[in-house]
Amino acid sequence: MLQAPPPRYEGPLELSSAHSQFKFLPFSEADFTRDGPRADAEYRDLGLESATNGRIGAKHIRALKPFAQETGWHWHDMTGHFVYVLRGSISFSFQGIADIVTVRAGGCLSQPAGVPHNVIARSDDLELIEINLPAQFSTLDVTDHAGHEHEAVQP
Questions:
Q1: What was the pLDDT predicted at 143?
Q2: Which of 42, 48, 121, 154 has its CA 20 to 30 A from that of 32?
Q3: What are the angstrom distances between the C-alpha of 86 and each of 18, 38, 56, 150?
Q4: What are phi and psi of 14, to 5 degrees?
Q5: CA distances from 2 to 5, 6, 7 (A)
């Protein structure tokens, strides 16, 4: 039997001094919007940014139309990036990983934060939960030192 690690702080806490806020978001109270980086998907904010003072962001994302083209090599300035696929599948190439990584319904992926990647395919019925640390981050194309975008970044 594994022994639990010692507590990180004195507890239990009162609700008013909790390390994250209480946040309950019924499905009916958060609409999907087009406020996201991809025109072929819609996004539903799950409210974790406000509950964690910006430390964690979470979105429910679903495909709207067929996947037309790869995203291109890019990276996100985050310290954690996680995907849980609810329906369908999504395929990635990652710098430093030789094989294509395909995540199918029920699968979870911890993307190596800050590492260049390219979404190369997804099913038309894709639906996933994406969790990132922090909630607000930048997405940057991969360019070489001369400012030219790479055609491909392989391990």
A1: 75
A2: 121
A3: 30, 18, 20, 32
A4: -80, 155
A5: 9, 12, 15
Residues ≥6 apart with Cβ < 8 Å to 149:
72, 73, 141, 142, 143
Three-state secondary structure call for residue 82: strand
DSSP H or E segment with residue 51: helix 48-51
Question: Which tokens hold the place of 124?
Answer: 């038309």
Give the pLDDT score at 2.
87
Fold of domain 31-141: Jelly Rolls (2.60.120)
Angle at 93 between CA 92 and CA 95, to 5 degrees: 140
Tell me the two tokens of residue 137.
Answer: 């981050």
Whose structure tokens read 């010692």? Answer: 6
What tens digit of pLDDT does each residue of 46-92 get? 999 999 999 999 999 999 999 999 999 999 999 999 999 999 999 99
Tokens of 90: 């999504």
Task: Choose among 92, 47, 48, 49: nearest CA to 74.
Answer: 92
What is the residue whose two structure tokens read 């696929």?
85
